From TrEMBL, chain A:
InterPro entries: Fe-S_cluster_assembly_SufBD, SUF_FeS_clus_asmbl_SufBD_core, SUF_FeS_clus_asmbl_SufBD_sf, SUF_FeS_clus_asmbl_SufD, SufBD_N. PANTHER family: PROTEIN ABCI7, CHLOROPLASTIC (PTHR43575). It comes from the Bacteria. This is Fe-S cluster assembly protein SufD.
From TrEMBL, chain B:
NCBIfam families: sufC (TIGR01978). The lineage of its organism: Bacteria, Pseudomonadati, Pseudomonadota, Alphaproteobacteria, Hyphomicrobiales. Residues 2-248 form the ABC transporter domain. Keywords: ATP-binding, Nucleotide-binding. It comes from Roseibium litorale. This is Fe-S cluster assembly ATPase SufC.
Length: 439, 251
């Protein structure tokens, strides 16, 4: 085999290579960061975008989806960002702090930095950190992610973001919304680091708004949850648009800590929400939820790898998917249990509800267990709305569409309620209702 | 109220004929009991009245207050006043009982052109009616029928009936799975709903229920046809002699 044979780049891949050459001098970071960026761009040039023959992307062929490389979104003024935000609905009247990223760059003037500072939360520009001596460390990625193509795209092009640090012991009283708004068309590439000090507590809501046009949204969230800390993060991938929406979570969980996440997908044509979760301390818990809605020809992919690298940790993975028309859903979940990670308790379930003949779900739950004293379970179901349930509701006078809405909501609510973040329950359920009503 | 004329029906999936020419007229205020052995078509008749799609009507018609019932969707029938108390009330995880009741009441009101009930009015109504049926707040907070005992499910069905105030109540073996006390509570609930404007069809295997809910007319259904019609004393006779006499007649 000749591994050096260059591949034939697609139009989008060639465009990405050109985009990098044009943008590289303007992208933030130290020399070490620049080298990492060049290496990542080199990976795209050598291997192309992830495609169906790459195991992790078997069901979500990004190369086939991405027809061309849109330019990176241009920088915007605070006023432009403000106007775009005012027009965007993200979380309604929820009482929260806000941190704003517009066209890939942090907008301090629109963020509640003073109020957050009073709560023990510091927010700094990711680009400033990238330029610092430890800049390259901010782009580190876990082993389990391998040479992930979406991460490489992010590393090459990341335009900005924030480093959000919650000091030890601080319990932030209100949820923090990290909103990323596409003010104008173009690719939006961001990376945010969220650090919780020992015993800190934070409720984070990650939202995306605006119109990125054909540009891809590539957002990485890097969570560092110290011992005894608790992070609950809700991610809403609900922007409407033709561009790919790619979100990646990298998280490390210390001892006696808790990470809870819910990834909500409804809207984009191509979405991948991938999470790499690693336990680094004992007696910790990760609860990972997913709620996915897709119709038309959309593809929605929820992928995760949970690494039980240490003993005595619990993880729960619970994913719900509703598909209509010719939409395709993907769930790939893997629990790895290292040889010495005894007393691991892992419970993974993925359930899909298909509303049409043309919808298709790929469910791939996996367990890889090297320890001998663990409890691990996985399950997958795929079905239609139960006619008997529907008839019962209709026999009580509830019209067909309303009855379907009730049942779909009931199906998804199991995950939303188990996630149990009351701040966002109503917003999530409303988005499900809106999605169903938009048919 | 209800006129069933020469109703023939079969199971859509396999074509097996279940109803073979039912004629039944129920006048306002009347209670009709339908008795008969297993497999005689009792439950099928109740499902067809409520609009379940698994059956194909091959002949005959059903008029409900002069309207062609068979052309109406299940929810339209409910809004028009048809209520089926299910033999096996179904569990619906994730749908809170209260939310379901409110949605059902207001959907029917909307279909009839009435205003939605306000939340306080709705709560007041539910509290009053559930007390009669010994339905606790705890039950109402749970998902619909989930984890309810057999008796609780049947009481919840009758609560729905009391709240929706239908014109025609079809009770499909409401007595099955009930102990003596639960039977009494359910029957009292049903009797409270008796009125000159409301008709009922009570489907049962046993005379026992008819001691509590006293019918005006008793029919014997066998092999998809009504083979005998009489007064409430017919139920007593059946209890004593069984269905053997009538099953033979229909064959």
């Amino acid at each position: 085999m000749n591994v050096t044979t260059p591949i034939n780049l697609t139009q989008a891949e060639a465009g990405l290579v050109d985009r990098f050459d044009a943008a590289r001098t303007g992208l933030a970071g130290s020399d070490a960061v620049a080298a990492l960026r060049a290496e990542a761009a080199g990976q795209i040039k050598a291997k192309g975008l992830p495609h169906r023959r790459v195991e992790e992307y078997k069901y979500s062929d990004l190369r086939a989806f991405l027809k061309s490389a849109a330019p990176l979104a241009a920088a915007v003024t605070t006023d432009e960002a403000k106007a775009a935000l005012a027009a965007a609905e993200t979380l309604g009247g929820l009482d929260r702090y806000r941190i704003v990223i517009a066209n890939g760059s942090y907008v301090a003037d629109l963020s509640d930095i003073e109020a957050l500072s009073a709560e023990g939360v510091s927010v700094t520009d990711f680009n400033a950190a990238l330029a610092g001596t430890n800049g390259a460390a901010l782009l580190a990625q876990p082993k389990s992610a391998g040479a992930d193509g979406v991460l490489a795209l992010n590393t090459a092009f990341v335009q900005g973001g924030v480093v959000l640090s919650v000091k030890a012991g601080a319990e932030v009283s209100k949820p923090v919304e990290l909103v990323q708004i596409a003010v104008s068309e173009g690719a939006q590439v961001t990376r945010c680091r969220v650090e919780l000090g020992e015993g800190a507590k934070l409720r984070l809501v990650e939202t995306f708004a605006g119109k990125a046009g054909a540009g891809e949204t590539n957002a990485v969230f890097d969570y560092d949850v110290a011992d005894k800390a608790q992070l609950a993060a809700t991610r809403l991938l609900t922007s409407e648009g033709a561009g790919a929406v790619l979100a990646t979570t990298l998280s490390r969980i210390g001892a006696d800590a808790e990470l809870k996440t819910l990834g909500f997908i409804a809207g984009p044509d191509f979405t991948r929400n991938q999470q790499f979760v690693a336990f680094t301390g004992e007696n910790s818990e990760a609860k990972i939820y997913g709620v996915t809605l897709a119709r038309g020809k959309a593809l929605a992919d929820q992928t995760l790898i949970v690494d039980h690298a240490v003993p005595h940790c619990n993880s729960r993975e619970f994913f719900k998917t509703v598909l209509d028309d010719d939409a395709r859903g993907v769930y790939q979940g893997r629990i790895n249990v290292a040889q010495h990670a005894q007393k691991t308790d892992g419970e993974m379930m993925t359930q899909a509800l298909l509303l049409s003949e043309g919808a298709e779900m790929a469910n791939k739950p996996e367990l890889e267990i090297f320890a001998d004293d663990v409890i691990c379970a996985h399950g997958a179901t795929c079905g239609e709305i139960d006619d008997d349930l529907l008839f019962y509701l209709r026999a009580r006078g509830i019209p067909l569409d309303e009855a379907k809405t009730l049942l779909v909501l009931a199906f998804l609510s199991e995950a939303i309620e188990e996630f149990g973040e009351e701040d966002v329950t109503e917003a999530l359920e409303q988005r499900v209702r809106d999605w169903l009503a938009a048919k | 109220m209800l006129e069933i004329k020469n109703l023939h029906a079969r199971i859509a999936e396999d074509g097996s004929e279940i109803l073979r020419g039912i004629d039944l007229t129920v006048k306002p205020g009347e209670i009709h009991a339908i008795m008969g052995p297993n497999g005689s078509g009792k439950s099928t008749l109740s499902y067809i009245l409520a609009g379940k799609e698994d059956y194909e009507i091959t002949e005959g018609e059903i008029l409900f207050n002069g309207e062609n019932l068979l052309e109406m969707e299940p929810d339209e029938r409910a809004a028009a006043g048809v209520f089926l108390a299910f033999q096996y009330p179904i569990e619906i995880p994730g749908v809170a009982t209260m939310e379901f009741l409110k949605t059902a009441i207001n959907a029917q009101r909307k279909a009839r052109g009435e205003d939605a009930l306000s939340i306080p009015d709705f709560m007041k109504l539910v509290k009053a009616k559930s007390a009669d049926l010994n339905v606790t707040m705890d039950m109402l907070k749970r998902p619909l029928n989930v984890g309810f005992s057999g008796g609780e499910k049947k009481r919840a069905e009758i609560l729905q009936m009391a709240l929706l105030e239908p014109k025609l109540c079809v009770l499909d073996e409401t007595d099955s799975g009930l102990d003596i006390d639960a039977l009494r509570i359910v029957s009292e609930g049903v009797n409270k709903l008796r009125s000159p404007e409301r008709s009922m069809i009570v489907i049962t295997h046993y005379q026992r229920l008819l001691d509590h809910i006293v019918p005006d007319v008793v029919h014997v259904l066998s092999k998809g046809k009504i083979v005998k019609t009489g007064g409430k004393e017919l139920a007593l006779e059946l209890e004593k002699n069984g269905y053997a006499d009538y099953v033979g007649e229909a064959a």
